[in-house]
Amino acid sequence: MSIGILVPHGKYFAAEFLAHALNAKTFGLCTKELNVEHLIIIGMRALKRYSKLKKKDFKSVAVIFSDTNFCRYYKWCNKYTLENNIPVYAMPDLNDYCLQPFTPAYHTITLPDIEIKKPDDRTVICHSPGTKAEDNIKGTEQIEIVINELSKKYNIEYLVLKNLSWKDCIKVKSTAHIFIDQLTKNNPFIDQYRFGGEIKYKGALGKSGIEGMLLKCCTITTMGFHETAPFFPFPPVVLTDYFDLMNVLEILINDTKYRNSLIEDQYGWAKKYCSPEFVAMNVTRHINETV
Question: What does the alpha-carbon distance between residue 28 and residue 72 come to, in Å, rounded to a whole number?
Fold first, then answer.
């Protein structure tokens, strides 16, 4: 059985690790022929490319939608996958944009070996705002207002991951006790309809948040609850929004026992359900129905 993965670039959805777990070949967007039996397409751009290729008789084709690019083109993506009977796997936070049944799938992440060591004399809070093109897309400005208020009462250090390589980001994040992924839900300073037009964006647990869990940071994000059973349990992240972030952070700063119990739950979940082996098994369920 031969499996191919069509990706915009090699690191997309950690394709390298997914390919290794599946013993699969990876193909870039310039590929003209896909000589495999089963094809997994990762992302909207790869699906667009696939739609323009001369099709061959694959035993199965499936697509993974893993970021907000899908939100911008969700009408076309849904129409194309429905018309061509392509099974869909998607990050659970994209639920509102999927107009058909789909299998939830989180990123697979493998981190470099690193010593995880947290300071004892202060609480370190970390946040990654994303690229300059996504300025305040994660609610960074509002997070920093809350941090500034808390710094008047508590001994905290705030680390912002900007203009760093991925490996340096991992090193810095490994020193944090708390990681804030994003503050989008109910944030009056962010356009909630910026992706899907008429659909309100409710936030997400992104790749950076999963990294935080694997680095034993108590990870906070804003997202709506999404049903992930029977495939895997809902991630045990701390859910909050713009109006409650201050209260949530105060609890986590003051109650280290509670914070550490959350960290252990999050680490165990991410280690199991974001491993290349589990994600590979999850996103190839459709193949078992065709062989």
Answer: 22
Looking at CATH, the fold of the domain delimited by 123-273 is given as: Rossmann fold (3.40.50)
Span 3-106+276-288: which CATH code? Answer: 3.40.50
Q: What is the rounded CA–CA span in Å between residue 100 and residue 78?
A: 7
What is the full per-residue pLDDT of the chain (291 aa) written as tens digits? 899 999 988 777 888 889 999 999 999 999 888 889 999 999 999 999 999 987 778 999 999 998 888 998 999 999 999 999 999 999 998 999 998 899 999 989 889 899 999 999 999 999 999 765 456 889 999 999 999 999 999 999 999 998 889 999 999 999 999 999 999 989 999 988 888 788 988 899 989 999 999 999 999 999 988 889 999 999 999 999 999 999 999 999 999 999 999 999 999 999 999 999 999 999 998 887 765
* Rg of the chain over all Cα atoms, to the nearest angstrom: 20
Return the domain boundaries, the chain: 3-106+276-288, 123-273
Burial label for 71, CB within 10 Å (0-12, 13-18, 19+), is: buried
| Residue 274 tokens, joined | 């974001």
Please check whether the two domains, 3-106+276-288 and 123-273, share a CATH topology: yes
